[in-house]
Structures are given as C-alpha cells and as structure tokens.
Specification:
Largest sheet: 7 strands, mixed
Order of helices and strands: EEEEEEEEEEE
Radius of gyration: 13 Å
Shape: globular
Helix content: under 10%
Structural class: mainly beta
Number of helices: 0
Distance between the termini: 40 Å
Number of strands: 11
Length: 116
C-alpha cells in the first residue's frame, strides 16, 4: 500500500518562503508522477504543481515563478519550495502520487497559513 507523508507546513508572513516535503513508501517511486494539490476553506481542491517520472513539470498559473516542485528518486521524496507567498496561498497542501497504471494515492495534508 502506498503511503505519503507530508511535512513542512506552518505559518509564514506574506512575502516569505516555506518548503514542503513528501515522503513516499510502498511504491516504485521513480515511475510515479507526483503532484502537490491544495484546498482552501470553501473551495475545491486544485492542482498546484506536478512532476513526471522524467522530471517534466507543470504549474498552476497562480504559482508560476514563485513555486518549484522537485523530486529525489534516491530518497523517494518530492518537494515544493514556495517563495513570495501570498495570503491567497493559505490552504491545506496535499501530496499526490500516480503510478503508471493510473492509480492515485493521497497524503494526509499539511496546513500552510500566510498572514498579511
């Protein structure tokens, strides 16, 4: 069974930076597409960034130029570096893993709060 555990959330002032990490187990990590999603109160969960097994990345327009997704296949880890944070980035951030068959797994989420 695939397990994803996020860490690194917290409270930061607007304009600050925060880094999230996601540890993955129970899967052949290097073959998986990994993603970060977020869900703000009263809103739908949305894709923030994803990175394929080949290292190709894709970002939501709202975070382009501010967030960077990366992965370390040797450590089974995926990261999200968030810079120039805004209050509207406040949300629960979830790590998501998709294996080559399309089966997906979610982490439990980590809260990010950006104060103005």
């Amino acid at each position: 069974q695939v397990q994803l555990v996020e860490s690194g959330g917290g409270l930061v002032q607007a304009g600050g930076s925060l880094g999230l990490s996601c540890a993955v187990s129970g899967s052949i990590f290097s073959r998986n597409t990994m993603g970060w999603y977020r869900q703000a109160p009263g809103k739908q969960r949305e894709l923030v960034a994803l990175i394929t097994s080949g290292g190709n990345t894709n970002y939501a327009d709202s975070v382009k130029g501010r967030f960077t997704i990366s992965r370390d296949n040797a450590k089974n880890m995926v990261y999200l570096q968030m810079n120039s944070l805004k209050p509207e980035d406040t949300a629960v951030y979830y790590c998501y893993s998709t294996n080559p068959t399309g089966r997906g797994s979610w982490g439990q989420g980590t809260q990010v709060t950006v104060s103005s």
